[in-house]
Amino acid sequence: MLMAKLAAAQADAVLPAPMNKRLYDALRQAILDGVVAAGARLPASRDLAQSLGIARNTVTHVYEQLAAEGYTDGRQGSGTFVTAALPDTHLRAVRPPTLATGGAVQALLSERGERIVSGVSAVPYRRGAFMPGEPDVEAFPHRKFGRILAALWRNPEPEWLGYSYGGGLPALRQALAQHLAMTRSIDCEPEQILITEGSHQAIDLATRVLGNPGDVAWIENPSYWGARTIFDANGLRTLSVPVDQEGMCLSDASALAPPRFIFVTPSHQYPLGAVMSLARRRQLLAIARQSGSWIIEDDYDSEFRFSGHPISSLRGLEPDAPVVYIGTFSKTMYPGLRVGYLVLPKMLTAAFQAAHAELYREGHLVTHAALAAFISQGHYAAHIRRMRLIYGRRRAMLVNLIHRRLGPGWLHQDDSEAGLHIVLNLPEGADDRAVVRAAGRKGVLTRALSRYYSGDAARRQGLLLGYGCVAEHEIVASFERLLAALKEVLQRS
Q1: pLDDT of residue 83
Q2: pLDDT of residue 283
Q3: Among 340, 87, 307, which Cα is nearest to 197's?
Q4: What is the mean pLDDT of residues 461-486?
Q5: Are 335 and 199 in contact (CB under 8 A)?
Q6: Residue 301 pLDDT grade (very low, low, confident, very high; cuts 50, 70, 90)
Q7: What local confidence, expressed as pLDDT, does residue 125 receive?
Q8: Range in 61-65, 306-310, 423-427, 466-470 the model is least confident about
Q9: Domain residues of the chain, as ranges?
């Protein structure tokens, strides 16, 4: 079908456009129409030129133009391939339609609903350089996991196929308890673990069961937008606390109203990257005890450290710590698995199990069984070790590019050599959201640092550059397109 379209474009002599323009238009449209799918290899320039009876230079020029605009990616010695994220995707509106339509739509939503949809940060496109928080799902051992899952589905236990009650499959909670004891110094019984559908559901459950509307939640500034949205949706009053190289600045929080919740990402502060110091962790635990607060510890990216030794989780520092610990498989396996978990104090387990079953109707127990086997057979730990090496190489490449092409000062000072993204500083007066839009037009995905802040006074300009789902052979070309977008914006400012 592709060759037929190109031949038709070549033969269409009535068009005034030159041959290279007709070939470009035909190829671009074939890509947009899905005739040439994402990841597919285009014909070799020599072969295509011979088939169409045109000069090879014409084909080469068109291929270069498509690559410059982000439609294709040339791989040395392999050919030219269609990119996974097309630039046209990023020209579409990402936010929901505005609610200001004569009051008709506004009348349908509650005030809470309006706040949620007006501040949406979730996006319809996720994969590609340099989208933060995305793991390399192609490197996951799908065949191993698939064999385990297929074997279970051939003869599933009848109780796995109905509604569940109790916080998840016992085998998975047992496997997780052993894994957390070895990797995060968390000593807990399997019954203290409750399986959720990702970290969002875990945060939602914790704030619903332990909080009342109007309660205060301290949250890092900048912080993960998803947690802030859930707190707001559940009627909590969030108070932003700045962070430094040691994590949440607790001296700055002393003047704030006593919190019911303190939400932190101590293993790898999101988004800046600092690791909370041991002294700061103990100070935070003391504050929580004195004020009767619950710490919600999102152990984000704790598995991927590329230097130094990990510090014990907050939950693991003290056996009776007032901590609700949250973990997920979204970064270590793949986000679509939708499996996360809570580690709870013993006194809370029965209440959380009842609330979880009542609010969300547990299920997916066959997946739980497969995941339990995947962990207990050693595949999970082996996968993390392998990915730590892969991500470490990609991170080193990206940092080296920043140093060589921009300078060391462009790398955020809180970088802790951990996680799946780094923060690129932008010069004073630069508009990071404009850079994100310009990069999107060139097929490069990133997020603006300023969107993670609460309040204009503390807001900083920067870019979150994820390297998890970027193949090493794509990093240099993608970074050059990002630099071109950055240059465009800086020249206008």
Answers
A1: 82
A2: 94
A3: 340
A4: 94
A5: no
A6: confident
A7: 57
A8: 306-310
A9: 2-83, 106-138+382-492, 142-378
In 3D space, the residue among 473, 487, 483, 399 whose CA is nearest the CA of residue 444 turns out to be 483
Q: Is CATH 3.40.50.1000 correct for 142-378?
A: no
Under CATH, what is the fold of the domain 2-83?
Answer: Arc Repressor Mutant, subunit A (1.10.10)
The two tokens of residue 476 are: 């240099």
Q: 């800046």: which residue's tokens?
A: 272
Q: Which residue has the higher pLDDT, 8 or 230?
A: 230
> Residue 416 — φ and ψ, nearest 5°?
-120, 15
Does the pLDDT value for residue 53 go beyond 90?
A: no
Burial degree of 322 (CB within 10 A; 0-12, 13-18, 19+):
middle
Rounded Cα distance, 173 and 68, in Å: 49
Superfamily name and number for 106-138+382-492: Aspartate Aminotransferase, domain 1 (3.90.1150.10)
Which candidate, 285, 228, 296, 259, places its Cα nearest to that of 454?
228
Q: Beta strand 340-343 with 323-328: parallel, antiparallel or unpaired? A: antiparallel
How would residue 87 be classed by pLDDT, with cut points 50, 70 and 90? low
Mean residue pLDDT across the chain: 87
Q: In what order do the strands lie in the sheet with 421-425?
A: 421-425, 462-466, 447-448
Q: Which of 332, 261, 326 is nearest to 301 (CA)?
A: 332
205 alpha carbon, distance to own chain's centre: 21
Three-class SS of the chain: CHHHHHHHHHHCCCCCCCHHHHHHHHHHHHHHCCCCCCCCECCCHHHHHHHHCCCHHHHHHHHHHHHHCCCEEEECCCEEEECCCCHHHHHCCCCCCCCCCCCCCHHHCCHHHHHHHHCCCCCCCCCCCECCCCCCHHHCCHHHHHHHHHHHHHCCCHHHHCCECCCCCHHHHHHHHHHHHHHCCCCCCHHHEEEECHHHHHHHHHHHHHCCCCCEEEEEECCCHHHHHHHHHCCCEEEEEEEECCEECHHHHCCCCCCCEEEECCCCCCCCCCCCCHHHHHHHHHHHHHHCCEEEEECCCCCCECCCCCCCCHHHHCCCCCEEEEEECCCCCCHHHCCEEEECCHHHHHHHHHHHHHHHCECCHHHHHHHHHHHHCCHHHHHHHHHHHHHHHHHHHHHHHHHHHCCHHHECCCCCCECCEEEEECCCCCCHHHHHHHHHHCCCCCEEHHHHCCCCCCCCCEEEEECCCCCHHHHHHHHHHHHHHHHHHHHHC
Read off the tokens for 264: 């932190």
* pLDDT bucket at 6, cuts 50 / 70 / 90: low
Under the banding of pLDDT at 50, 70 and 90, the label for residue 76 is low
The residue written with tokens 């038709």 in the block is: 8
